[in-house]
Amino acid sequence: MLRENRYLLLAFLAAVATGLFTYAYLAQLDRRVEVVVAAAAVPQYARLDTGTVKVVRLPVQAVHPDAVLRLEDALGRHVLVPSEPGEQILRSKLAGSGRDARFVARLGPEERAMMVPVGLAQGAGGAVRPGDRVDVVFVTTEHQSGFALARTLLYGVTVLDVRNDQGRSATERDAGQPAGVVLAVSPGQAERLAFAMENGRLYLSLSGYTAVEVQTPGVTWETLFASDPPPVVAGEGNPGGAPR
After folding, report:
1. DSSP secondary-structure letter at 221?
2. 186-222 pLDDT tens trace
3. Span 18-53, pLDDT tens digits
4. Which of 189, 191, 184, 187 is nearest to 107 (CA)?
5. What is the reported pLDDT for 160?
6. Cystine design at 138: which of 19, 196, 215, 229 (Cβ 3.0–4.6 Å)?
7. Are 32 and 58 in contact (CB under 8 A)?
């Protein structure tokens, strides 16, 4: 009798354990997590916003390991591949948005990235960093153009990247000198920079956080030792502003 009771107890415990495992398995199947998916067809390189992505709840087994789980991690990012409605947005398919992200993802529709070769002497002694704003000063010589002139060509352009002589993003630990900077410019500014590089030299002056655009007449041999004229801030007594 005792042995039969023991068998009944073991059978009861086995049934309970089976039930618990079954319940846990079914609960796991029913567990859902929030995932960011395309709310509409998203073309390649599009910038994600609340009209193109949304959050849905999917079974945990259906979620891709690389899926974006939070909406704020997707908004403002650019997709590197097109997505269909309902398709999960993957982190590996998004262009970066941080300081070290590929800078082309941060260019506006009318902006272009252009490399300006400058060394330590022309590039503010190596003090220029991505995200800084600089003025570009153009200098030509009589030998090149028949007259000598120095004048600010562009004002307050954004530095996208600093490159070393190996063509990679420069760091503080780079042994070599910086080879140049990549600037965010308009197509018209890119043309002016290209012309200036072919007919003179370019220097960068680093702007402060509160810098304003100041129009200058430029410098020639005749005005090199003249007194500086009063500065004219763009928009103050200068309706057209400084040329860009």
Report:
1. T
2. 999 999 999 999 989 999 988 877 777 888 888 888 8
3. 766 665 565 555 678 899 999 999 998 788 999 999
4. 184
5. 87
6. 196
7. yes
Measured CA to CA, the distance from residue 242 to residue 217 in angstroms comes to 10
pLDDT < 70 regions, the chain: 1-17, 19-30, 96-102, 106, 143-145, 165-178, 229-244
AA letter at 232? V
Q: Does domain 32-93 have CATH number 3.90.1210?
A: yes
Provide, rounded to the nearest whole percent, the portion of the chain with pLDDT above 90: 28
C-alpha to C-alpha distance for 215 and 154, rounded to whole angstroms:
10
Q: How far is CA 53 from CA 32, 41, 48, 67, 92, in A?
A: 19, 9, 7, 13, 16
Whether 35 contacts 71, CB under 8 Å: no
As beta bridge partners, residue 7 has none
Q: What does the pLDDT read at residue 31?
A: 79
Please report, for the chain, the start and end positions of each structural domain, with discontinuous segments joined by +. Answer: 32-93, 106-233
End-to-end Cα distance, the chain: 101
Q: Residues 26-55, buried b or exposed e (16+ Cβ, 10 A)? A: eeeeeeeeebbbbbeebeeebebeeebbbe
